């Protein structure tokens, strides 16, 4: 049996683009799980800067956000001693495997990706082939590390499924090469909705509808105060995502932040209106994010430390990635140098 088949712990891979601020959505949907999984799994967490350039980025902002995101990962509890933390563009194997996998991915499959359709509509003046083939690079990210689980929010399920399809196809054409990964999606917080429009996902490209990890308390209060609640006459804290999407989203956020379940939240606020519920949700998030923000600010000032983390991470990631890439090159018939 090869070393890969007898490894003790299952492996995890996930990543977030440094294309904006980390949000409450990315925290609840992804990062919080990443932290929780570190002891039980072999974890590899990435800052996917190559994915970020699928839409236009300002270079100075991209550099600043990439480092700030690393500081925020660590402040959230990702521990570079336990997990591999690295920057995607530092490990050249991602682009190389991405190319090969693109030759095993159908145009039709990529055309069905809802994130592509959404982003193409949003950036209608700049629909690049990179945006279209983005899920292929994501599949390469995951498959290079032979990941078993991919902790992401609900919106990424389709991409992880495509990754499985590509892996299965490649394994079928050649022989077992890739492990088949599965999406690992949290029960609570898998889809945090926008505070401005509770029928669409909270996303970093919608600054007013989203809470950022680094938002100051006053900002968090202001954003929750303006959160859209529902136009029903009931004015009561009751979960009903169909008829009361606004307050239901706030209940989910409060529950996820405090560890309560939805029923307990409803009971706690029984008889109180939105007016007293909204500040309570804001307070819960302020307290959840305060230590993270303070630690991230401290780490972000220590560039030497951040550099040591990403250098070490890239080195460890490359070792794993190179093994997979070598295997793939051999299978497709490339002559070793
Ligand atoms: P964009 O605005 O560019 O679409 P985004 O805000 O969706 O970005 P991503 O970088 O695409 O953020 O997502 C990072 C991770 O957080 C992914 O695993 C994604 O599934 C998860 N995530 C993002 N937004 C939410 C959300 N609102 N609820 C739950 N999980 C989310
Ligand atoms: N597509 C993801 C980011 C991403 C990712 C990955 C997530 C790129 N590569 C590999 C998990 C595993 C997003 O838009 N949030």
Overview of the structural elements:
The chain has 2 domains: 218 residues, HUPs (Rossmann fold, 3-Layer(aba) Sandwich); 91 residues, Orthogonal Bundle (Tyrosyl-Transfer RNA Synthetase). The protein has 13 helices and 5 strands. A 3-stranded parallel beta sheet has the order 1-2-3. Strands 4-5 form a two-stranded parallel sheet. Helix 3 packs across helix 12, helix 4 crosses helix 7 and helix 10 crosses helix 11. The radius of gyration is 21 Å and the shape is globular. The chain starts with 10 loop residues before the first strand and ends in a 5-residue tail after the last helix. 45% of the residues are buried. The site of adenosine-5'-triphosphate has 22 residues, from helix 1.
Give the low-pLDDT segments. none
Continuous helix count: 13
Task: Tell me, briefly, the overall form.
Answer: globular
What is the average of the pLDDT values? Answer: 95
Q: Cα-atom Rg, whole angstroms?
A: 21 Å
Number of domains: 2
SSE succession: EHEHHEHHHHEHEHHHHH
Q: How do the strands line up in the largest sheet?
A: 1-2-3
Which bin fits the share of residues in helices? 40-55%
| Class derived from helix and strand content | mainly alpha
Return the CATH topology of the largest domain: Rossmann fold
CA-to-CA gap between the ends?
Answer: 26 Å
Bound molecules: adenosine-5'-triphosphate, L-tryptophanamide
The CATH architecture designation of the largest domain is: 3-Layer(aba) Sandwich
Within CATH, the superfamily of the largest domain carries the name HUPs
Output the CATH class name of the largest domain.
Alpha Beta
Strand content: 5-15%
Beta strand count:
5
For the sheet with most strands, the description reads: 3 strands, parallel
């Amino acid at each position: 049996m090869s070393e890969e088949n007898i490894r003790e712990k299952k492996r995890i891979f996930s990543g977030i683009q440094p294309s904006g601020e980390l949000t409450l959505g990315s925290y609840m949907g992804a990062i919080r799980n990443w932290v929780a999984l570190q002891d039980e799994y072999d974890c590899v967490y990435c800052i996917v800067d190559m994915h970020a350039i699928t839409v236009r980025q300002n270079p100075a902002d991209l550099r600043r956000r990439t480092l700030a995101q690393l500081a925020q990962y660590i402040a959230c509890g990702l521990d570079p001693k336990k997990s591999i933390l690295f920057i995607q563009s530092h490990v050249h194997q991602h682009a190389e495997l991405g190319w090969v996998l693109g030759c095993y991915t159908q145009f039709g499959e990529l055309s069905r990706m809802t994130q592509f359709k959404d982003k193409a509509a949003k950036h209608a003046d700049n629909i690049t082939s990179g945006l279209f083939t983005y899920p292929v690079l994501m599949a390469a990210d995951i498959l290079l590390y032979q990941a078993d689980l991919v902790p992401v929010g609900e919106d990424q399920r389709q991409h992880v499924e495509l990754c499985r399809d590509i892996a299965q196809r490649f394994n079928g054409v050649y022989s077992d090469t890739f492990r088949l990964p599965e999406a690992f999606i949290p029960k609570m917080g898998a889809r945090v909705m926008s505070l401005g429009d509770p029928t669409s996902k909270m996303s970093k490209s919608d600054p007013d509808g989203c809470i950022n990890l680094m938002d100051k308390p006053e900002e968090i209060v202001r954003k929750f105060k303006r959160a859209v609640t529902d136009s029903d006459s009931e004015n009561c804290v009751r979960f009903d995502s169909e008829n009361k999407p606004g307050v239901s989203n706030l209940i989910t956020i409060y529950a996820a932040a405090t560890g309560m379940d939805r029923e307990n939240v409803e009971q706690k606020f029984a008889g109180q209106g939105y007016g007293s519920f909204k500040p309570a949700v804001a307070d819960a998030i302020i307290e959840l994010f305060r230590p993270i923000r303070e630690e991230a600010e401290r780490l972000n000032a220590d560039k030497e430390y951040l550099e040591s983390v990403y250098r070490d991470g890239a080195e460890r990631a490359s070792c794993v990635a190179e093994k997979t890439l070598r295997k793939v090159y051999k299978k497709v018939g490339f002559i070793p140098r």
